[in-house]
Queue: 4 jobs
Job 1
Amino acid sequence: MSTETPASPVYSRKKPFPSKLLVNRRLTLDGSEKDTRHFELSLEGSGLVYETGDSLGVVPANCPELVQEIIHALHANGDEIVPGNDGAPKALRQALLTDYQITQPSKQFIQAIVERGGEAASFLRELQDPLRKEDMEDYLWGMEYIDFLVSHQAAGFTAEEFVKLLRKLQPRLYSIASSQKAFPEAVHLTVAIVTYESHGRNRKGVTTTFLADRVDEATRVPVFVHSAKGFRLPEDWDTPIIMVGPGTGVAPFRAFLQ
């Protein structure tokens, strides 16, 4: 009979670690047009290991207010049973919260609006001309599912028909802003919170506002480490380096400095 201790669970993209958010601190001053936050998430008990230059995958939940608006626009109550992103049945409200991307419309949804939207969809139908691809892209910029559900009620989607037109909610990757040599049981992020207005509505970045506004003491943040083997400090520490972050911002260089 084996007396070996069972291996600890391995956390990954398929099985993210339920992390506790330890710190949520605004870095930009009050009145600034930007809202940049410093987040610290616990890795205690996870066994997760990261290197400077790696990214942290964060699995978000959607905005409950937006979910409710979509349920209302579908003339549903949220309890309707629909397929989740793994095919298993679950309540519409839960599926919209955790399973599906509910902001940027899919091509399948736009096509369904064209086919079922009647006269109200005639302009959208015209934009499907291949020669008007740029016009279509300009028109769709800043538009979300809720805009089409409200303005094309004649499409009349059932709850199940609607979710079958959605894409799976994907994790977001953020450059890690800490070194595990300095913080063995935590990981830091430096994140600009995405909020903007388009077509008369306030829009929210799915994951940034999840972290900034919707994670409380009871909420756990599913996370995993995404390795970036090509983004490392030189093995020879005497090598002079220049750090340039035109796309990543300051986050990974804070980690390199630590």
Note: Residues 17-60+171-257 form a domain with the Elongation Factor Tu (Ef-tu); domain 3 fold (CATH 2.40.30.10).
Job 2
Amino acid sequence: MVTTYGLTETCGGIAYDGRLFEDTAVRIGSGGEIQVQGPTLMNGYRHDAAATADAFTLDGWLRTGDAGELDEDAALHVRGRLDDAIRTGAETVWPQEVESAIRHHPKVADVAIAGRPDPEWGARVVAFVVPSRGTDPPSLEELRDHAAERLARFKCPRELVLVEEIPRTASGKLRREALP
């Protein structure tokens, strides 16, 4: 399996297994945002100068809206969408990381993680779970214990919402904004 990364604005993939395509450059901007330059980058949005100006830095790098980091070998590691990050207390939780930790629980058929307002912490981590068997759904404590084997405890869900399905696009991409 090969992990790929790219956007419509880059005309498809720009990195395979963290390795950038030839002549493609990535830098990490403020807030950990991945910014891109290269030969496959779009010139702009058709007939939308304002959106084009918002999409690029003043020096011509595309703002992806994704968070990531470059390791010591210059390999790109994508954390997730900046607007999906959950700020709980003084910590940042990436939903994809929590989903990956919970997805393999035997009582979980599908999962999505999102932040919801919390009066004490700013936001709390919420797990939306489709149970493998409706007659025996996982408990919040089961999921927290399972996730804590792989993650720091503060990243584990503080709320569980059982759902019949996770909202996805026709291509299977999670529609996080459509979660209840």
Note: The first helix runs from residue 49 to 55.
Job 3
Amino acid sequence: MDDVIAATGMSSSAVYRYFRSKDELIAAAADEALILVRDLFGKLLQQRPVPSPGEVITAMTDAVRSRASHPDYDLTRIAIQTWGEALRNPALEERTRSFYLSVHGQLVELSRRWRAEGRVSPEADDREIATVLVSLMPGLLVGPHLVAGVPADELIGGLSSLGTALGDG
């Protein structure tokens, strides 16, 4: 908290007026990062016609790139740190789990609309598609810090090739 107080230039009483503890500060930062992700999918669901799977993946990669390049703070780092803190803080773990289940629900709805519009097979399982997309999110966030950014076209091409290969048995 001393580092936060020093970085803000505020008095300790002013900072503690908003955050009584490090855990409250972490929860607030986590909420900000997670809400941006949920809002991304909410906006995509509002579009008519619904964006294609490729457009959704492109929106995901663009959002990560934009969050990582913020001049004041990198929200991708905050999301990664949130996962680590969630391992030691049961309340944050539940909050994070609830968030990801909500996002998974949004992705199920996107998939349902894709099926209705003929963008994916009528036999496709919406929950499976949502699970694949929500599982991509950690890799998109961690990738730029460990290896390199993940270009949308490479991700789309790789998923397409993998889908073809998996369909062959």
Note: The first helix runs from residue 2 to 8.
Job 4
Amino acid sequence: MGIFKKKYQVKPNTVGFLYRKNKFEKILNSGYYEIWDWRDRTELFMLPETSKLLTVTNQEVLTKDNIALRFSFNVIYKITDGHKFLGKFTLDKHINSIINEAEQRLYNIVQIYIRNKIAELDSETLNEKRSELTNFKTEEMTKEISEFGISIEQVQLRDLTFPKSIQDLFAKHLESKIRSKSELENARTAVATARALKNASELMKDDDNIKFFQIIETITKIAEKGKHTFMIGDINQLAKK
């Protein structure tokens, strides 16, 4: 009686969808099966149960300020409703071709959402906040893609590439900001030093002891150059004080 049965294998991390006479019959989990099919009218479609990574590169978009840039992104997705998924495609080809077609539709949907998001921002904001603009998953995107029985786990921007001329402008702008910050710090230091000198000057202005030591220091410096006779103020009067 085995000649009237058809053998199927459902590999680990996959799930099988058995169709008989081109109509869905049942789900088969991983394992080996012998299905009664003496007229050879059954077919098994196997879908992955694990998440899959879709990488899209070299996409072009205009920013809000009309700067053309290129970007790439990753999409991690999972087929969560195989029955709905298979119902969206013509099942007259190999399952790998069906998954490739699904990924193309997925790519088109996600690309539109990312383009629209980037187009809302100007180039300078994108450059300054590129580390923050990594997750592009939205509720609207998730809902639209769920119609294919697919769940979006992550939509992540990989990189942004600006034209060379714009990169040079960003570099000059950054250099200018760093120079301005350095000059500001130097100015603050100069102001603090001037304030300290002014306070010290005010402190010494009316202090006779400090004046006396200043005179002694001046005399010492002059005496180092040779023998001189000189008089600076009333030194005897200062000494008495």
Note: The beta strands are 5-10, 14-20, 23-28, 31-36, 42-48, 52-62, 68-79, 150-161.
